[in-house]
Design brief:
This protein has a domain of 162 residues. It contains 10 helices and no strands.
Amino acid sequence: MMKIIKNFYHLVVDNKLPTLSGALCFFILINGGAFFFLFVNLFSYYLNDIKSVIIENTSNDMIRDLLIYLIEHNANLPYSLFLIITSIYSSSTLYYHILNVSELITKKPISIRLSKRIISLILVPIILIILYIILLALSLLYTLFKLVTIVLIFILLILMIIAFNIMVLREYRIKRMIKGFIFSLLYIIVFTLLFVAYLSIFSNFKIVYGILSFFIIFLFYIYNIVIGLLIGAFINWKNIEVFNI
């Protein structure tokens, strides 16, 4: 048991996963902010159903108020064609940061060509439309079948972990990625449950940090989730190396 803990510790520390996670978390927030702006502006007229579900089913006042504020604030921002184009470019840049993570994990250089930039730019509006359809479907289902919605969210989590591993490891044989996938899935579920329980017990963040409390909590959560994804990817890469010997 101690040997497993020691190996796990060296996996995290020797590969500088906390630093890598912090860098990737930063880019997720920066590029994700541009993506969120696009999403809200393009679909602001149709977000009433999603917003009503947030109001009715988010028990935490701080999270509910901030989500509604972000939706309404971004929907009312003046925008232009230039701003939309630059936001699409910024959103697509996250793909390049993930490619850099792939290079750090696999130790294999990646050629970043113009074709990949064009593909990433095309993918942004496609993902926007898919995300809106998913959120609208989940909001409608949640009002009718809450259990079905939870199952669908769980399936989406599984697909997200698989997609991350495929992008980072450039490996399409799912059987070789089972160990890291299971680790990341269990890590995210357990950490999320413990994190929610912690917030419900120690709910005085708003008193200490004021309006910054949500951003501090959100950053901490994303940072730790990314660590779980990176550890799972490293486990999968070690497994792939064994298969290739």
